[in-house]
Amino acid sequence: MSFRSEIFSKAHRGHMGISKCKSLLKDHDQMRKYYRSRKKPLAKLKINQEVLFQKCKEIAWLPTILIEFLGNRSYMLKFDNGIMYRRNRIYIKERHYSKDSESESSQNDNQSTIHSNLSKTF
Questions:
Q1: Distance (Å, whole) CA 53 – CA 60
Q2: Is pTM, for the whole model, over 0.70?
Q3: CA distances, 100 to each of 9, 47, 87, 96 (Å)
Q4: pLDDT digits (tens, 9 = 90+) for 101-110
Q5: Whole-number Å distance between alpha carbons of 87 and 74
Q6: Which regions are flagged for Polar residues bias (predicted)?
């Protein structure tokens, strides 16, 4: 039963007057309006994107891969060991790589390319 229908049913049973009922509905609508004005939309995620996932609120964020979009806010995630989870979008966040790790990987790539080129020439 929704909040609105619950209030009306109580008003009709004599638990509260109609003016009290209207006052509660007005307060409820104001709270809902305030909540929605503060709510930020979450960005859509892409299939096969590397993301971070939180199994429970107390557990750290774990890296995984998003494999399927299931509906309004649900996604299917898959770990390297094959375990799959269905999770709401609020428990998934994009995985951002730091510039340090990108520069290190590009340096390693450059060094391996230079090394392979040198070995070919000698």
A1: 8
A2: no
A3: 61, 26, 30, 12
A4: 544 444 555 4
A5: 6
A6: 113-122
Distance CA 9, CA 34 (A): 26
- For residues 51 and 44, the answer to whether their CB atoms sit within 8 Å is no
Maximal CA-CA distance, the chain = 96
Tell the residue number behind the tokens 């340096």, with chain if given: 107
**77-105 mean pLDDT:** 78
d(CA 8, CA 43): 38
**Length reported for the chain:** 122
DSSP state letter for 96:
P
Query: At CA 111, angle to CA 108 and CA 116, rounded to 5?
Result: 125
CA distances, 39 to each of 5, 28, 77, 91 (Å)? 25, 17, 25, 16
